[in-house]
Amino acid sequence: MTSFRISEAAALLGVSDDTVRRWADAGRLELERGPNGMRMVAGSELVRLLGDEPDGGALAQAFPLARASTRNRFVGLVTAVERDGVMAQVELRAGPFRIVSLMSREAADELGLEPGMLAAASAKATVVSIELPGGVDA
To answer: What number of H helices and E strands is found in the chain?
Structure first.
């Protein structure tokens, strides 16, 4: 079974290390001891916690936007907008995720996209690839 250090679990959940420790103290999250005696979080515990999150997570709950059929929605802040003659590149940070969208400049202008704005990125794809981080044995 895959286990994560508290700091890794916090990063995956988009919360602070202290929040993970508080959740463990409150019984919301079960910690285990790793071979070296460090407190660890089982990957299955993270899956369970993520399943407890309402659709869209805490950011989407705090800042509800228009409803849509897209399930892969990321609510966050626009961090950069680069426009040229025809196209615009828009960068959004949603929790620990950085999403980059290429769109027409006209669309970016009509939305008035600027850094610091709240926005939601949605993704629908016919192919989704899953990769393991380097050095992880399956």
So the answer is: 5, 7
Q: What is the per-residue pLDDT for 86?
A: 96
Domain tally, the chain: 2
Residue 39 belongs to domain with CATH number: 1.10.1660.10
Cβ burial, residue 127 (10 Å; 0-12/13-18/19+): exposed
Q: Note whether 45 and 81 are same-domain residues.
A: no
* Spatial distance between the Cα atoms of 75 and 97, rounded to a whole number of angstroms: 10
* Cα–Cα distance measured from residue 138 to residue 124, given in angstroms and rounded to the nearest whole number: 28
d(CA 59, CA 76): 7
pTM of the model: 0.55
